[in-house]
Amino acid sequence: MLLKKEDINRKEIYRYLGYKGQEPDETVKELIEEVLEQLLNAIEPRYLYKLYQCKIEEEDITFWHENTGECFTLQSKNLAYTLRGCKEAYLMAATLGIGADKLLQRYEVISMAKASASQACGAAVVEALCDKTQEEIRKLAEEKQCHIRPRFSPGYGDLRLETQKEIFKQLDCTRRIGITLTEDMLMYPTKSVTALIGLTDEKEECHTGKCKQCTNTECEFRDEV
Amino acid sequence: MKFREHLGKKIMFFDGAMGSLLQARGLKTGEIPENWNMEHPEKVMEIHKEYLFSGCNVISANTFGANRFKCKNNAYTVEQLVTAGVKNVKTAMEEAKKQLLAEGKEPQEMYTALDIGSIGKLLKPLGELPFEEAYEVFKEIIIAGRNAGADLVLIETFSDCYEAKAAVLAAKENCDLPVVVTLIFDERGKLLTGGDVASVTAMLEGLGVDAIGFNCGLGPEQMLKLFPELTKCCSVPIVINPNAGLPIVINGQTCYNVEPEEFSNGMVQFVELGASAVGGCCGTTPAHLKMVVEKCKDLQISPVTDKNLTVVSSYNHAVYFTRKPLIIGERINPTGKSKFKQALRDHNMEYIYKEGLTQEEKGAHILDVNVGLPEIDEPKLMEEAVTGIQAIIDLPLQIDTSDPIAMERALRCYNGKPMLNSVNGKKESMEAVFPLAKKYGAVVVCLCLDEDGIPETVEGRLKVAQKIVDTAASYGIPKKNLVMDALVLTISTGKENANVTLETLRRIRYEMGIHTVLGVSNISFGLPERTKINTAFFTMAMHNGLSAGIINPSSEAMMSAYYSFNALIGEDDQCMEYIEKCQSQAIAQTTQNPAVQSAAANTQMSLEDAIIKGLADSASKATEALLEEKIDSLTIINEKLIPALDIVGKGFEEQKMFLPQLLMSAEAAKASFEAIKAVLSKQGKQSESKAKIVIATVKGDIHDIGKNIVKTLLENYGFNMIDLGKDVAPELILKTVQENNVKLVGLSALMTTTVVSMEETIKLLRKNQVDCKVMVGGAVLTQEYADMIGADFYSKDAMGSVRYANELYEKGELV
């Protein structure tokens, strides 16, 4: 199994369930652990990534592929800030597969408490999968004495959801790992993530809190810690 | 030579990759490759000719992605791209033939394949694309390809069997061309959507495709490891088109590094092991195919043999009829069950799904699905039930209806190779059922009765069985797709009834060589303690050749007989299944032990505590205890249950309690309600509900977890929830509100784009001057947005809707 129970950040699960730093009681914890175990048995994690050169001019970030010459440009102040000073960046995609969605539909018949826990666990598990993917990328970066910047996803801050189209085109996500994209830029299976990770020569000590950089201050899941 | 005459008789060669060769000629990433059919036909034809000169027979037109989604906002239509694509192949073939003849070479047989790839969208219910829309997408391509003169339809690189079914149906219903289907399996033999080789093969053979195989994803080496799984179950010719190895990334570029020499050696092995046709996929080139042709062209292919398997499948696994009997769960059926009937009338799908889940848990292998009631729209409900059950349960289904329209709708939307219950020896029945069974590849349950009723003798039943077999054969349905029901009549009305059934079973199974099925429990009708007779008869029937028993898997006695029988006939290795079953029964018994229970009763918590803590079992027991003390059910609800729920609700609003607790409390309260209802129904009373509320996730939106949370909570507060589900049309909401005189509607939407549907729904309700309030909720909604679309109330969380509904109820606005 690619992901184990101990890889999953419980605090994230609690946060997705609406806890704001409090510890759930034992009954809720038991429920979460049971659902998490079922979920890890039901999923088939898959991921991929690809390296691009990049150049940042104010809020335009242009990416191109060294060998094929493929080229595309994204506009985002927040992404430009995250990638400042980067000459290279990885595009990545990861998914838990349809197993997580099937389990959720099943729980919705059996128990809504389990269904909501399953939804939260799924979000935390796909994050853990992204962490694993990012770790591989970090090692690749290390080989060329580079450091990585925090990963950044479409829909986050001012990076438009439409960016998904470009990422899907570049990574061939549908054929390679089975993620599909709707006209509304939603992904199925639902527990899927796409992201960009910049590479820099400088060691970046300050990986600012994921949420703090986001412009959506109204988000109910915003992590202020 | 025609394609069908060639396939499976003589080795056939498919071509190799197209995309990478187009890229080498200047196609850019993101550019639509099919546009080159119009813009650079000479370059496309050049590639076709290279494959023809390598000796390939089947050339795939450059139409892989020519579907309406890709062509949206494109300069060319699907029809233009497909027509040009097919034409390019035909022209390339003519030119190649001329050149070969000029060089004094005999041209090989050449066939133009209309190449169809996956749409790249996930089908409902897991994704967004309705099955019938997928069908329409493929139909458009197929009609264009047929008109352009393709020789066959090649459905390839699919990773979802449901999508493959839509494509095959579209091909079968819109042309007479041969259909070849190849899918991508991973190294463990799984599709991206979970199907395995056996289940996919069962479904595709059932649909009548001409050849089945693997392509893409893997190289010859990995595919060879999976190949035995296909050869052991496949009864049609096999096509293998691997990649030139597994993809490896060099400098960020995807490459395939298996060279022609190694690739062709692998392909020789496929032919020797039973493939009828070989070719290549990603990373293969004319050089690869040239060497494949050279090494394989003189090989004898193995004759295609019928594996003679009786098999049904779900989206992810196949179930075979073998010596070890199967359990078909009988519980999804309203006959004689007043609660089930009520659930059907109330459109309570959850009740049906729960019956299914329980049977799966208890060890059923197949589930019978019968939702027939005179007063309901059976075709509609049948389709909904099949779609809903297969979304959450992995077992194959037995579609059980006498309505041919319901039958076809269920067969069509079924994701796999279904079982069909039933046909009988009456002319009318066979004429209605066999064409459907043939078309959708169902395994049909055949009842040994006809116009003259149920024959009393063994000979009489066998005669009907033979008539059914012969008629089925005239429709092209082989014996392996029939399962005979020898019929069971109760021994209370005829002492020979069991003997006749058992002997009929034995002879059908061992003399006619056909698998059998029985609705076992009919044997004891009219007798006391029926389980005793049923269990004994079940064992006797299995011993006499029963292949599948239609029983209640929750009956411990029946399942014990089943597991014991398997252990006795040597079909349970080291009695593992039997032992496991005994252990789980032992655990179940300890928890039901009266001594243990009374100990628990001593420390029993109050109903309020049980609900606040979210403990369903305790809540149920506490309720039962209160009822035993003769406390009135209304008092329990109003003075204990509701106050406890209020405490949790308040805690939630003050952020002292959280969503899981809120829902667990709701479930505990539900358990308490169930206990009350059970007592009331024993007394012949019904529990009263406050008022009806319609709830729905609006059209275009399939995210319903939020709606379901709200529904759970409102139910707890005694409201009668009419849940219309997800992706609900405004018209249906209006109709339901009008027909039921509903005063409150709850609408949910997750996305900005579907809030538009929410607005349309509200407009439609207002336009028709329906006197009802509308409350809305969902991730993207705000008070401002809710006001803008004309909602009466915006609920920021689940408790908000409870408060609003209660307020309206107290004001007397809800009835």
Keywords:
heterodimer, A: 225 residues, alpha+beta, 6-stranded antiparallel beta sheet, two-stranded antiparallel ribbon, 8 strands, globular, B: 815 residues, alpha/beta, TIM Barrel, Methyltransferase, Methionine Synthase (B12-binding Domains), Chain A, domain 1, 31 helices, 25 strands, 49% helix
What is the third-level CATH name, the topology of the largest domain in chain B?
TIM Barrel
Strand content of chain B: 5-15%
Please estimate the helix content of chain A. 25-40%
Q: How many β strands of chain A by DSSP?
A: 8
CATH class label of the largest domain in chain B:
Alpha Beta
Mean pLDDT of chain A: 89
* CATH-level-4 superfamily name of the largest domain in chain B: Homocysteine-binding-like domain
Instruction: Describe the main β-sheet of chain A briefly.
Output: 6 strands, antiparallel
Unreliable parts of chain A: none
Quickly give the CATH architecture of the largest domain in chain B.
Alpha-Beta Barrel
Give the biggest sheet of chain B: 8 strands, parallel
SSE-based structural type of chain A: alpha+beta
Strand order of the largest sheet of chain A: 3-2-1-4-8-5
Measured distance between first and last alpha carbons of chain B: 74 Å
What shape does the CA trace of chain A take? Answer: globular
Rg for CA atoms of chain A: 18 Å
CATH class of chain A: Alpha Beta
Please name the two chains that share the biggest interface, counting residues whose Cβ lies under 8 Å from a Cβ on the partner chain.
Answer: A-B, 50 and 47 residues
Arrangement of strands in the largest sheet of chain B: 1-10-7-6-5-4-3-2
Give your account of this protein's structure.
The complex is a heterodimer of chains A (225) and B (815). Chain A has a single domain, classed as 3-Layer(aba) Sandwich (NADH Oxidase), CATH 3.40.109.40. In chain A, 40% of the residues lie in helices and 20% in strands. Chain A has helices at 10-16, 26-42, 77-82, 98-110, 112-143, 163-171, 173-177; strands at residues 46-57, 60-64, 71-75, 88-95, 147-148, 180-181, 187-188, 192-200. Chain A has a 6-stranded antiparallel β-sheet with strand order 3-2-1-4-8-5, sandwiched between helices. In chain A, strand 2 and strand 3 (71-75) form a beta hairpin. In chain A, helix 1 (10-16) packs across helix 5 (112-143), helix 2 (26-42) packs across helix 5 (112-143) and helix 4 runs antiparallel to helix 5 (112-143). The radius of gyration of chain A is 18 Å and the shape is globular. The mean pLDDT of chain A is 89. Chain B is of the alpha/beta class and 815 residues long. In chain B, helix 5 (78-102) runs parallel beside helix 6 (131-148). Residues 596-600 of chain B have low confidence and may be disordered.
